[in-house]
Task: inverse folding
């Protein structure tokens, strides 16, 4: 007879099969693969790419569910063998822990039903108060997200990386492509606070510094945004970021200024002016869409007569390196003393913790 722990996990696996619509997804994948094998599939390149991505996302989801089912089978087998040989107890406990994390991830993924949650994200990091310290903190955060994206198997493309004066970064903008990238990274939007002994302070005093993180969706082409090209001033200039000789000796960098709102978007990390211009317009469209959505939300709140707290610029997470070590999310309450692991990209517990908290609100 299985333990109550195993029965609970088996129930969660069965629930996951249902809420992930595994059987329906298998049929959908079969149809997509038949479509991809048909003659002329690549005649419409954009439609073909969308179908290929949809098939890849389904395969990834099915693979994660199959891995969870296999881990459940391993846990049952180890549990039965542990009755005869206690040496299997450690194997059972490891299988249970691993399965719990897998199911957490699958359950969180099921929450991403928003319009853009499944798609790519544009992440912008800007230094706040703290001078050189804030620039260094901006680079540390960018490195953290780069490692997190790599751990998830996501692709990160640098769009605008501006070196700071002496150390760190004065700005970092990147596009992150992967399943549920925007939905998951929504947890990171807001102000991140660092407390540590400053490496730039000769007197080794404790400093507090800030950096803001903005997360926007990469909008599909069929989303309409009120963007008149006549309202955008386009300037080109020589890239100031790191790169090859061709990047730094041609006017490949692009700056867009949206005259009605004053929004300025720059992109200089792609190889050509055309690529930088396309990337900059992606960011500008996302920013304008966010402004329109915020206006609509404020109008709805006004009609409801409710006063909603504006989370823009709010402090969401503390990273304390001195006098003790702790990272704590101020929304979910998730915390850990392993600061180095978090700064090396081990963010999953914080991302999942945020979405669990959000779902409970």
Result:
């Amino acid at each position: 007879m299985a333990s109550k722990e195993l029965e609970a996990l088996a129930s969660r696996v069965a629930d996951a099969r249902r809420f992930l619509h595994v059987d329906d997804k298998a049929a959908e994948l079969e149809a997509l693969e038949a479509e991809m094998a048909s003659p002329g599939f690549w005649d419409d390149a954009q439609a073909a790419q969308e179908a290929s991505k949809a098939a890849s996302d389904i395969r990834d989801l099915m693979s994660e569910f199959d891995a969870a089912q296999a881990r459940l089978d391993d846990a049952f087998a180890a549990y039965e063998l542990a009755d005869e040989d206690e040496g299997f107890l450690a194997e059972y406990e490891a299988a249970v822990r691993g399965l719990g994390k897998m199911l957490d991830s699958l359950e969180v993924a099921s929450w991403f039903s928003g319009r853009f949650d499944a798609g790519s994200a544009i992440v912008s990091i800007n230094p706040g108060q703290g001078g050189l310290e804030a620039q260094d903190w901006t680079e540390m955060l960018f490195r953290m997200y780069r490692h997190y994206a790599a751990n998830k198997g996501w692709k990160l493309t640098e769009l605008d990386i501006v070196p700071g004066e002496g150390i760190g970064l004065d700005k970092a903008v990147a596009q992150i492509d992967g399943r549920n990238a925007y939905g998951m990274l929504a947890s990171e939007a807001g102000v991140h606070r660092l407390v540590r002994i400053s490496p730039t302070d000769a007197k080794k005093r404790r400093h507090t510094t800030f950096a803001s993180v903005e997360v926007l969706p990469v909008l599909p082409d069929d989303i309409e945004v009120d963007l008149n090209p006549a309202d955008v001033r386009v300037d080109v200039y020589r890239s100031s970021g790191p790169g090859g000789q061709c990047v730094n000796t041609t006017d490949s960098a692009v700056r867009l200024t949206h005259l009605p709102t004053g929004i300025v978007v720059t992109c200089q990390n792609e190889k050509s002016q055309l690529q930088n211009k396309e990337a900059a317009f992606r960011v500008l469209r996302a920013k304008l869409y966010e402004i329109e959505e915020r206006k609509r939300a404020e109008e709805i709140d006004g009609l409801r007569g409710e006063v909603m707290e504006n989370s823009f610029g709010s402090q969401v997470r503390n990273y304390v390196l001195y006098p003790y070590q702790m990272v704590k999310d101020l929304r979910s309450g998730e915390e850990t003393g392993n600061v180095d692991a978090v700064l090396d990209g081990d963010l999953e517990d914080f991302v999942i913790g945020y979405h669990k908290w959000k779902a409970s609100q």
Q: What stands out?
A: The chain has ten helices and eleven strands. Confidence is low (pLDDT under 50) at residues 242-249, 306-313. The longest strand covers residues 206-217.
